[in-house]
Predict the 3D structure of the following.
Amino acid sequence: MSNSDTSFAFAHPIYVMLKPAGSRCNLSCRYCYYIEKRRMFDETADFSIDDVLLETFTEQYIAAQTQPEVLFTWHGGEPLLRPLAFYQHALDLQRRYAGGKHIDNCLQTNGTLLTDEWCRFFRDNRFLIGISIDGPRRFHDALRGHTFDRVMHGIDLLNRHGVEWNAMAVVNGLNAEYPLVFYRFFKQVGC
């Protein structure tokens, strides 16, 4: 490939993370960098994606993809602070602008707001759900408040509804020395 050949730059899909609720979250994890950022803005500021921006982004993002597969990654803050209707509308827009491309969605959540209704929606629309959980209770609750039981309830709902999920854990000074404990925990919960 010569230096003037730019086809390589367009041969790979473009990936972005959408933050539908901005940095808003229902938790205040001790290591979260969003907590500090929230103090920089007026408390009434709402950085949620509105319908106009969502449609514009969806159309342009799909059109920019050079591959037949398109991945939308919904992230936060906590993306489940947006109502289910927001995601139903987002999927309608994806179908409208798909142009024959296959579209997948994944969503990263702390899991505390999951319900049967959310899980049915995720299963029916083949979302991959990422759960933020820092391993067993002693590690998770140390930095994420006492939310372990709520997250585990969310994981149980995902499992009962047959929703594909994975985990994202923050490795830190409290848990880095316990890789086997982590492995066994994630295996036990069906990750």
